[in-house]
Specification:
Chain A has one domain: P-loop containing nucleotide triphosphate hydrolases (Rossmann fold, 3-Layer(aba) Sandwich). In chain A, 33% of the residues lie in helices and 15% in strands. Chain A has nine helices and seven strands, in the order βαβαβααββααβααβα. In chain A, strands 3-2-4-1-5-6-7 form a seven-stranded parallel sheet, with helices on both faces. The chains are: A alpha/beta, B mainly alpha.
Protein backbone atom coordinates (compact mmCIF):
# COMPACT_ATOMS: atom_id res chain seq x y z
CA UNK A 1 0.00 0.00 0.00
CA UNK A 2 1.99 3.01 -1.22
CA UNK A 3 2.04 6.12 0.84
CA UNK A 4 -0.14 8.72 -0.79
CA UNK A 5 -1.36 11.33 1.64
CA UNK A 6 -4.98 12.17 0.91
CA UNK A 7 -5.65 15.84 0.49
CA UNK A 8 -6.97 16.47 3.96
CA UNK A 9 -4.38 14.35 5.80
CA UNK A 10 -2.04 17.30 5.63
CA UNK A 11 -4.63 19.72 6.92
CA UNK A 12 -4.26 21.06 10.42
CA UNK A 13 -7.81 22.29 10.40
CA UNK A 14 -10.21 19.41 11.00
CA UNK A 15 -13.15 21.80 11.02
CA UNK A 16 -12.69 22.57 7.35
CA UNK A 17 -14.44 19.50 5.99
CA UNK A 18 -17.36 20.51 3.88
CA UNK A 19 -16.30 24.13 3.61
CA UNK A 20 -14.15 23.99 0.50
CA UNK A 21 -13.93 22.06 -2.73
CA UNK A 22 -11.36 19.40 -3.70
CA UNK A 23 -10.66 20.02 -7.40
CA UNK A 24 -7.28 18.25 -7.07
CA UNK A 25 -8.84 14.80 -6.78
CA UNK A 26 -11.67 12.88 -8.50
CA UNK A 27 -15.26 13.88 -7.83
CA UNK A 28 -16.78 11.71 -5.09
CA UNK A 29 -20.47 11.29 -5.83
CA UNK A 30 -22.71 9.54 -3.29
CA UNK A 31 -25.89 7.63 -4.14
CA UNK A 32 -28.17 6.84 -1.22
CA UNK A 33 -31.83 6.11 -0.51
CA UNK A 34 -34.03 3.30 0.80
CA UNK A 35 -33.43 -0.31 -0.16
CA UNK A 36 -34.85 -1.43 -3.49
CA UNK A 37 -35.26 2.01 -5.06
CA UNK A 38 -32.67 1.33 -7.76
CA UNK A 39 -29.38 2.75 -6.48
CA UNK A 40 -27.30 -0.03 -8.04
CA UNK A 41 -29.23 0.22 -11.29
CA UNK A 42 -28.72 3.98 -11.36
CA UNK A 43 -24.98 3.49 -10.88
CA UNK A 44 -24.93 0.84 -13.62
CA UNK A 45 -26.78 3.31 -15.84
CA UNK A 46 -24.25 6.07 -15.12
CA UNK A 47 -21.37 3.70 -15.85
CA UNK A 48 -22.96 2.58 -19.12
CA UNK A 49 -23.51 6.18 -20.22
CA UNK A 50 -20.28 7.73 -18.99
CA UNK A 51 -17.56 5.05 -19.09
CA UNK A 52 -16.67 5.87 -22.69
CA UNK A 53 -15.77 9.46 -21.84
CA UNK A 54 -14.85 9.41 -18.14
CA UNK A 55 -12.64 7.24 -15.90
CA UNK A 56 -14.98 5.79 -13.28
CA UNK A 57 -14.79 3.63 -10.17
CA UNK A 58 -17.43 2.45 -7.70
CA UNK A 59 -17.49 1.75 -3.96
CA UNK A 60 -20.44 -0.22 -2.60
CA UNK A 61 -21.60 -0.40 1.01
CA UNK A 62 -23.93 -3.24 1.74
CA UNK A 63 -25.42 -5.40 4.43
CA UNK A 64 -23.67 -8.51 3.11
CA UNK A 65 -20.62 -6.66 1.92
CA UNK A 66 -20.38 -7.51 -1.76
CA UNK A 67 -23.97 -8.02 -2.96
CA UNK A 68 -24.15 -4.74 -4.85
CA UNK A 69 -20.57 -5.04 -6.05
CA UNK A 70 -21.33 -8.44 -7.53
CA UNK A 71 -24.45 -7.07 -9.23
CA UNK A 72 -22.46 -4.26 -10.78
CA UNK A 73 -19.60 -6.53 -11.82
CA UNK A 74 -22.06 -8.92 -13.46
CA UNK A 75 -23.66 -5.98 -15.28
CA UNK A 76 -20.33 -5.68 -17.09
CA UNK A 77 -20.44 -1.89 -17.16
CA UNK A 78 -17.00 -1.42 -15.65
CA UNK A 79 -13.98 -3.66 -15.20
CA UNK A 80 -14.43 -5.72 -12.04
CA UNK A 81 -11.35 -4.30 -10.28
CA UNK A 82 -12.87 -0.81 -10.38
CA UNK A 83 -15.85 -1.95 -8.31
CA UNK A 84 -15.01 -2.50 -4.65
CA UNK A 85 -17.09 -3.38 -1.64
CA UNK A 86 -16.64 -2.01 1.87
CA UNK A 87 -17.44 -4.01 5.01
CA UNK A 88 -19.71 -2.00 7.27
CA UNK A 89 -20.03 -4.37 10.24
CA UNK A 90 -23.79 -4.41 9.64
CA UNK A 91 -23.81 -0.62 10.15
CA UNK A 92 -24.22 0.89 6.65
CA UNK A 93 -25.57 4.10 8.17
CA UNK A 94 -22.47 4.54 10.36
CA UNK A 95 -20.09 3.82 7.48
CA UNK A 96 -21.29 6.80 5.42
CA UNK A 97 -21.92 9.25 8.24
CA UNK A 98 -20.42 8.79 11.74
CA UNK A 99 -17.27 6.86 10.86
CA UNK A 100 -16.33 7.10 7.21
CA UNK A 101 -12.88 5.48 7.66
CA UNK A 102 -13.55 2.29 5.71
CA UNK A 103 -14.98 4.21 2.76
CA UNK A 104 -12.14 6.74 2.70
CA UNK A 105 -9.65 3.88 2.78
CA UNK A 106 -11.31 2.18 -0.19
CA UNK A 107 -11.54 5.44 -2.15
CA UNK A 108 -7.89 6.27 -1.52
CA UNK A 109 -6.81 2.80 -2.65
CA UNK A 110 -8.82 3.19 -5.87
CA UNK A 111 -7.30 6.62 -6.46
CA UNK A 112 -3.82 5.13 -5.98
CA UNK A 113 -4.52 2.20 -8.32
CA UNK A 114 -6.07 4.40 -11.04
CA UNK A 115 -4.42 7.78 -11.10
CA UNK A 116 -6.60 9.17 -13.89
CA UNK A 117 -10.02 8.74 -12.26
CA UNK A 118 -12.64 11.40 -12.92
CA UNK A 119 -15.44 10.17 -10.67
CA UNK A 120 -15.71 7.73 -7.76
CA UNK A 121 -19.34 6.72 -7.21
CA UNK A 122 -20.14 5.70 -3.62
CA UNK A 123 -23.28 3.64 -3.14
CA UNK A 124 -24.72 3.52 0.37
CA UNK A 125 -26.23 0.33 1.73
CA UNK A 126 -29.99 0.54 1.37
CA UNK A 127 -31.01 2.28 4.57
CA UNK A 128 -33.88 4.31 5.92
CA UNK A 129 -34.97 7.80 4.96
CA UNK A 130 -32.67 9.46 7.52
CA UNK A 131 -29.34 8.16 6.17
CA UNK A 132 -27.22 10.70 4.30
CA UNK A 133 -23.51 10.94 3.46
CA UNK A 134 -21.06 12.97 5.51
CA UNK A 135 -19.78 15.96 3.51
CA UNK A 136 -16.29 14.70 4.45
CA UNK A 137 -16.94 11.56 2.37
CA UNK A 138 -18.67 12.81 -0.80
CA UNK A 139 -18.67 16.10 -2.71
CA UNK A 140 -22.28 15.73 -3.81
CA UNK A 141 -25.06 13.22 -3.25
CA UNK A 142 -28.06 11.83 -5.10
CA UNK A 143 -31.01 10.55 -3.05
CA UNK A 144 -33.06 7.89 -4.82
CA UNK A 145 -36.77 7.13 -4.27
CA UNK A 146 -38.99 5.08 -6.54
CA UNK A 147 -42.65 5.26 -7.45
CA UNK A 148 -43.20 1.65 -6.33
CA UNK A 149 -42.29 2.64 -2.76
CA UNK A 150 -45.49 4.68 -2.62
CA UNK A 151 -46.59 8.06 -3.96
CA UNK A 152 -46.56 9.76 -0.57
CA UNK A 153 -42.90 9.14 0.35
CA UNK A 154 -41.64 12.38 -1.21
CA UNK A 155 -44.26 14.39 0.67
CA UNK A 156 -43.06 12.94 3.99
CA UNK A 157 -39.67 14.58 3.48
CA UNK A 158 -36.52 13.86 5.44
CA UNK A 159 -32.95 15.08 5.08
CA UNK A 160 -32.08 13.25 1.85
CA UNK A 161 -35.41 13.96 0.18
CA UNK A 162 -35.35 17.62 1.16
CA UNK A 163 -31.68 18.52 0.82
CA UNK A 164 -29.64 16.02 -1.22
CA UNK A 165 -28.05 17.72 -4.22
CA UNK A 166 -30.37 15.77 -6.54
CA UNK A 167 -33.53 13.82 -5.75
CA UNK A 168 -34.30 11.05 -8.23
CA UNK A 169 -37.83 9.62 -8.39
CA UNK A 170 -36.97 6.34 -10.09
CA UNK A 171 -38.91 3.75 -12.09
CA UNK A 172 -41.49 6.23 -13.41
CA UNK A 173 -42.40 3.61 -16.03
CA UNK A 174 -43.95 1.52 -13.23
CA UNK A 175 -46.40 4.26 -12.18
CA UNK A 176 -49.45 2.86 -14.04
CA UNK A 177 -48.97 -0.52 -12.35
CA UNK A 178 -48.68 0.79 -8.80
CA UNK A 179 -51.30 3.55 -9.05
CA UNK A 180 -48.94 6.46 -8.45
CA UNK A 181 -49.45 9.91 -9.97
CA UNK A 182 -45.87 10.80 -11.01
CA UNK A 183 -46.42 14.55 -11.61
CA UNK A 184 -47.99 14.82 -8.16
CA UNK A 185 -45.15 12.89 -6.51
CA UNK A 186 -42.59 15.12 -8.22
CA UNK A 187 -44.63 18.18 -7.28
CA UNK A 188 -44.61 17.01 -3.64
CA UNK A 189 -40.83 16.61 -3.84
CA UNK A 190 -40.35 20.08 -5.32
CA UNK A 191 -42.49 21.53 -2.54
CA UNK A 192 -40.19 20.19 0.19
CA UNK A 193 -36.94 20.91 -1.73
CA UNK A 194 -37.26 24.61 -2.47
CA UNK A 195 -35.15 25.18 -5.62
CA UNK A 196 -33.15 21.93 -5.43
CA UNK A 197 -33.49 19.69 -8.49
CA UNK A 198 -35.88 16.73 -8.76
CA UNK A 199 -35.69 14.22 -11.60
CA UNK A 200 -38.28 11.63 -12.59
CA UNK A 201 -36.19 8.81 -14.06
CA UNK A 202 -36.82 5.68 -16.06
CA UNK A 203 -34.29 3.64 -17.95
CA UNK A 204 -36.84 3.47 -20.76
CA UNK A 205 -37.30 7.26 -20.91
CA UNK A 206 -34.30 8.51 -22.86
CA UNK A 207 -34.97 12.16 -22.11
CA UNK A 208 -34.82 11.49 -18.37
CA UNK A 209 -31.51 9.64 -18.76
CA UNK A 210 -30.09 12.60 -20.68
CA UNK A 211 -31.24 14.91 -17.91
CA UNK A 212 -29.40 12.76 -15.32
CA UNK A 213 -26.20 12.76 -17.38
CA UNK A 214 -26.43 16.52 -17.82
CA UNK A 215 -26.74 16.98 -14.06
CA UNK A 216 -23.75 14.71 -13.31
CA UNK A 217 -21.51 16.36 -15.91
CA UNK A 218 -22.53 19.76 -14.57
CA UNK A 219 -21.56 18.73 -11.03
CA UNK A 220 -18.25 17.36 -12.31
CA UNK A 221 -17.52 20.64 -14.10
CA UNK A 222 -18.33 22.56 -10.93
CA UNK A 223 -16.08 20.22 -8.93
CA UNK A 224 -13.17 20.75 -11.31
CA UNK A 225 -13.30 24.52 -10.92
CA UNK A 226 -13.24 24.18 -7.11
CA UNK A 227 -16.66 25.78 -6.89
CA UNK A 228 -18.45 22.66 -5.65
CA UNK A 229 -18.76 22.90 -1.87
CA UNK A 230 -20.07 19.70 -0.23
CA UNK A 231 -23.40 20.50 1.38
CA UNK A 232 -24.67 18.39 4.21
CA UNK A 233 -28.32 17.36 4.03
CA UNK A 234 -27.87 16.52 7.71
CA UNK A 235 -30.26 14.53 9.83
CA UNK A 236 -31.91 17.64 11.27
CA UNK A 237 -35.23 19.01 10.13
CA UNK A 238 -35.16 22.64 8.98
CA UNK A 239 -38.42 23.94 10.28
CA UNK A 240 -38.37 27.10 8.22
CA UNK A 241 -39.44 25.30 5.06
CA UNK A 242 -40.10 21.70 5.98
CA UNK A 243 -43.88 21.96 5.92
CA UNK A 244 -44.66 24.41 3.15
CA UNK A 245 -47.16 22.11 1.47
CA UNK B 1 -3.93 16.13 28.78
CA UNK B 2 -4.81 13.76 31.60
CA UNK B 3 -3.89 10.24 30.53
CA UNK B 4 -7.17 8.78 31.79
CA UNK B 5 -9.05 11.09 29.45
CA UNK B 6 -6.74 10.18 26.57
CA UNK B 7 -7.41 6.53 27.32
CA UNK B 8 -11.17 7.11 27.26
CA UNK B 9 -10.92 8.96 23.97
CA UNK B 10 -8.90 6.23 22.30
CA UNK B 11 -11.00 3.38 23.76
CA UNK B 12 -14.32 4.89 22.74
CA UNK B 13 -16.08 2.98 19.96
CA UNK B 14 -17.15 6.37 18.60
CA UNK B 15 -13.54 7.16 17.67
CA UNK B 16 -13.86 7.33 13.87
CA UNK B 17 -11.25 4.75 12.90
CA UNK B 18 -13.49 2.05 11.45
CA UNK B 19 -13.71 -0.11 14.57
CA UNK B 20 -17.25 -1.09 13.64
CA UNK B 21 -15.93 -2.86 10.53
CA UNK B 22 -13.83 -5.33 12.57
CA UNK B 23 -14.83 -8.53 14.37
CA UNK B 24 -11.56 -9.80 15.81
CA UNK B 25 -12.05 -12.80 13.48
CA UNK B 26 -15.10 -13.91 15.48
CA UNK B 27 -17.27 -13.75 12.34
CA UNK B 28 -15.05 -16.38 10.71
CA UNK B 29 -14.84 -18.38 13.96
CA UNK B 30 -18.64 -18.56 14.25
CA UNK B 31 -18.90 -19.49 10.59
CA UNK B 32 -16.50 -22.38 11.16
CA UNK B 33 -18.17 -23.99 14.12
CA UNK B 34 -17.45 -21.89 17.19
CA UNK B 35 -20.66 -21.20 19.14
CA UNK B 36 -21.64 -18.10 21.07
CA UNK B 37 -21.09 -20.20 24.19
CA UNK B 38 -17.39 -20.45 23.26
CA UNK B 39 -16.80 -16.70 22.97
CA UNK B 40 -15.36 -16.20 26.50
CA UNK B 41 -12.76 -18.90 25.81
CA UNK B 42 -12.10 -17.36 22.42
CA UNK B 43 -11.42 -14.02 24.13
CA UNK B 44 -8.90 -15.63 26.49
CA UNK B 45 -7.19 -17.37 23.58
CA UNK B 46 -6.80 -14.07 21.73
CA UNK B 47 -5.52 -12.25 24.82
CA UNK B 48 -2.80 -14.89 25.17
CA UNK B 49 -1.83 -14.93 21.48
CA UNK B 50 -2.62 -12.45 18.69
CA UNK B 51 -3.67 -9.66 21.04
CA UNK B 52 -0.58 -10.15 23.21
CA UNK B 53 1.54 -9.66 20.09
CA UNK B 54 -0.38 -6.50 19.19
CA UNK B 55 -0.14 -5.08 22.71
CA UNK B 56 3.57 -5.86 22.94
CA UNK B 57 4.21 -4.24 19.57
CA UNK B 58 2.26 -1.12 20.56
CA UNK B 59 4.18 -0.80 23.84
CA UNK B 60 7.56 -1.11 22.12
CA UNK B 61 6.49 1.34 19.40
CA UNK B 62 5.43 3.78 22.11
CA UNK B 63 8.77 3.44 23.88
CA UNK B 64 10.74 3.94 20.66
CA UNK B 65 8.63 6.93 19.61
CA UNK B 66 9.02 8.53 23.04
CA UNK B 67 12.82 8.18 22.77
CA UNK B 68 12.87 9.64 19.26
CA UNK B 69 13.85 6.27 17.80
CA UNK B 70 12.99 4.36 14.65
CA UNK B 71 9.74 2.39 14.41
CA UNK B 72 10.58 0.42 11.26
CA UNK B 73 11.99 -2.61 13.06
CA UNK B 74 9.07 -2.59 15.51
CA UNK B 75 6.72 -2.87 12.56
CA UNK B 76 8.85 -5.65 11.07
CA UNK B 77 8.84 -7.49 14.40
CA UNK B 78 5.05 -7.24 14.54
CA UNK B 79 4.72 -8.51 10.95
CA UNK B 80 7.06 -11.45 11.67
CA UNK B 81 4.77 -12.44 14.56
CA UNK B 82 1.58 -12.06 12.49
CA UNK B 83 1.79 -14.83 9.90
CA UNK B 84 -1.71 -14.35 8.47
CA UNK B 85 -1.56 -11.93 5.53
CA UNK B 86 -5.28 -11.21 6.03
CA UNK B 87 -4.64 -10.07 9.62
CA UNK B 88 -1.62 -8.03 8.57
CA UNK B 89 -3.63 -6.33 5.84
CA UNK B 90 -6.55 -5.61 8.17
CA UNK B 91 -4.19 -4.13 10.76
CA UNK B 92 -2.41 -1.97 8.18
CA UNK B 93 -5.81 -0.67 7.05
CA UNK B 94 -6.68 0.20 10.64
CA UNK B 95 -3.27 1.79 11.04
CA UNK B 96 -4.00 3.97 8.06
CA UNK B 97 -7.35 5.15 9.40
CA UNK B 98 -5.81 5.96 12.79
CA UNK B 99 -2.94 7.73 11.04
CA UNK B 100 -5.44 9.84 9.08
CA UNK B 101 -7.28 10.83 12.25
CA UNK B 102 -4.04 11.60 14.09
CA UNK B 103 -2.85 13.63 11.10
CA UNK B 104 -5.85 15.89 11.57
CA UNK B 105 -5.82 16.07 15.38
CA UNK B 106 -2.17 15.57 16.40
CA UNK B 107 0.02 15.90 13.30
CA UNK B 108 3.25 15.93 15.36
CA UNK B 109 2.40 12.45 16.63
CA UNK B 110 3.10 11.08 13.16
CA UNK B 111 6.73 12.19 12.98
CA UNK B 112 8.13 8.79 14.11
CA UNK B 113 6.09 7.11 11.31
CA UNK B 114 7.56 9.28 8.61
CA UNK B 115 9.48 6.53 6.80
CA UNK B 116 6.79 3.86 7.06
CA UNK B 117 4.49 3.23 4.09
CA UNK B 118 1.80 1.15 5.77
CA UNK B 119 2.45 0.63 9.48
CA UNK B 120 0.29 -1.70 11.56
CA UNK B 121 -2.36 -0.38 13.91
CA UNK B 122 -0.07 -1.30 16.83
CA UNK B 123 2.78 0.80 15.45
CA UNK B 124 0.58 3.85 14.79
CA UNK B 125 -1.15 3.48 18.15
CA UNK B 126 2.25 3.37 19.87
CA UNK B 127 3.29 6.62 18.18
CA UNK B 128 0.00 8.31 19.13
CA UNK B 129 0.27 7.07 22.72
CA UNK B 130 3.81 8.44 23.01
CA UNK B 131 2.68 11.83 21.73
CA UNK B 132 -0.34 12.01 24.02
CA UNK B 133 1.55 10.82 27.09
CA UNK B 134 -0.37 7.59 27.54
CA UNK B 135 1.62 5.28 29.87
CA UNK B 136 2.75 1.88 28.57
CA UNK B 137 0.46 -0.10 30.89
CA UNK B 138 -2.56 1.96 29.88
CA UNK B 139 -1.69 1.44 26.23
CA UNK B 140 -1.47 -2.34 26.69
CA UNK B 141 -4.80 -2.38 28.56
CA UNK B 142 -6.31 -0.30 25.74
CA UNK B 143 -5.23 -2.86 23.13
CA UNK B 144 -6.58 -5.74 25.19
CA UNK B 145 -9.84 -4.02 26.07
CA UNK B 146 -10.46 -2.88 22.51
CA UNK B 147 -9.94 -6.41 21.24
CA UNK B 148 -12.40 -7.86 23.75
CA UNK B 149 -15.04 -5.23 22.97
CA UNK B 150 -14.54 -5.70 19.23
CA UNK B 151 -15.19 -9.44 19.48
CA UNK B 152 -18.18 -9.04 21.81
CA UNK B 153 -19.80 -6.25 19.78
CA UNK B 154 -19.44 -8.30 16.60
CA UNK B 155 -20.78 -11.42 18.35
CA UNK B 156 -23.90 -9.43 19.28
CA UNK B 157 -24.50 -8.71 15.60
CA UNK B 158 -23.85 -12.31 14.58
CA UNK B 159 -25.43 -14.47 17.27
CA UNK B 160 -28.70 -14.35 19.21
CA UNK B 161 -27.50 -12.79 22.46
CA UNK B 162 -28.70 -10.54 25.23
CA UNK B 163 -26.42 -7.46 25.08
CA UNK B 164 -26.00 -7.73 28.85
CA UNK B 165 -24.51 -11.20 28.41
CA UNK B 166 -21.88 -9.85 26.01
CA UNK B 167 -21.03 -7.04 28.42
CA UNK B 168 -20.71 -9.68 31.12
CA UNK B 169 -18.10 -11.44 28.98
CA UNK B 170 -16.18 -8.17 28.70
CA UNK B 171 -16.32 -7.66 32.46
CA UNK B 172 -15.20 -11.23 33.10
CA UNK B 173 -12.23 -10.75 30.76
CA UNK B 174 -10.90 -7.67 32.58
CA UNK B 175 -8.49 -9.61 34.86
CA UNK B 176 -7.08 -11.36 31.80
CA UNK B 177 -6.60 -7.96 30.13
CA UNK B 178 -4.76 -6.72 33.21
CA UNK B 179 -2.53 -9.81 33.12
CA UNK B 180 -1.75 -9.20 29.45
CA UNK B 181 -0.76 -5.61 30.24
CA UNK B 182 1.48 -6.71 33.11
CA UNK B 183 3.26 -9.09 30.77
CA UNK B 184 4.15 -6.49 28.10
CA UNK B 185 4.15 -3.09 29.83
CA UNK B 186 7.90 -3.04 30.47
CA UNK B 187 9.04 -4.15 27.01
CA UNK B 188 11.36 -1.76 25.20
CA UNK B 189 12.91 -3.62 22.27
CA UNK B 190 11.37 -5.41 19.25
CA UNK B 191 13.09 -8.69 20.09
CA UNK B 192 11.16 -8.86 23.38
CA UNK B 193 7.72 -8.75 21.74
CA UNK B 194 6.02 -12.08 22.49
CA UNK B 195 5.94 -14.43 19.50
CA UNK B 196 2.79 -16.40 20.18
CA UNK B 197 0.68 -17.02 17.14
CA UNK B 198 -2.66 -18.81 17.15
CA UNK B 199 -2.78 -20.91 13.98
CA UNK B 200 -6.52 -21.58 14.26
CA UNK B 201 -7.37 -17.86 14.38
CA UNK B 202 -4.96 -17.21 11.53
CA UNK B 203 -6.51 -19.96 9.38
CA UNK B 204 -9.99 -18.59 10.07
CA UNK B 205 -8.83 -15.08 9.16
CA UNK B 206 -7.36 -16.32 5.88
CA UNK B 207 -10.60 -18.13 4.99
CA UNK B 208 -12.69 -15.08 5.91
CA UNK B 209 -10.75 -12.81 3.56
CA UNK B 210 -12.05 -14.69 0.51
CA UNK B 211 -15.62 -15.20 1.75
CA UNK B 212 -18.65 -13.67 0.08
CA UNK B 213 -21.40 -11.98 2.07
CA UNK B 214 -19.30 -11.12 5.12
CA UNK B 215 -20.32 -8.35 7.51
CA UNK B 216 -16.87 -7.55 8.92
CA UNK B 217 -13.52 -6.80 7.35
CA UNK B 218 -11.59 -9.27 9.52
Amino acid sequence: MPEHAPHHEDSHHPGQHGQHGHPDRPLRLGVCGPVGTGKSSLIALLCRELAATLELAVITNDIYTDEDARFLRSAGVLEAERIRAVETGACPHTAIRDDISANLLAIEELEEDYDDLDVVLVESGGDNLTATFSPALVDAQIFVLDVAGGGDVARKGGPGIERADLLVVNKTDLAPYVGVDVPRMIGDARAVRAARPVLGLSRTDRASVEELITWVTGILASHRTGALIPRDPGPMARHSHAHQH
Amino acid sequence: MHHELVLMLLADARLPVGGHTQSGTVEAALAHGLTAHDVPAYLRTRLRSVTLVEAGSAVVARHRAACGGDLADVDVAWAARTPSSALRQASRGQGRTLRRLAGLLWPEALAPLHDLLAPSRATVLGAVAAHLGLPAGSLARLVGYDDVQTVCAAALKLAPLDPAVATGWVAAALPEIAALAAEVADLTSPGEIPAVGCPQIEVWAQAHAVTNRRLFRA
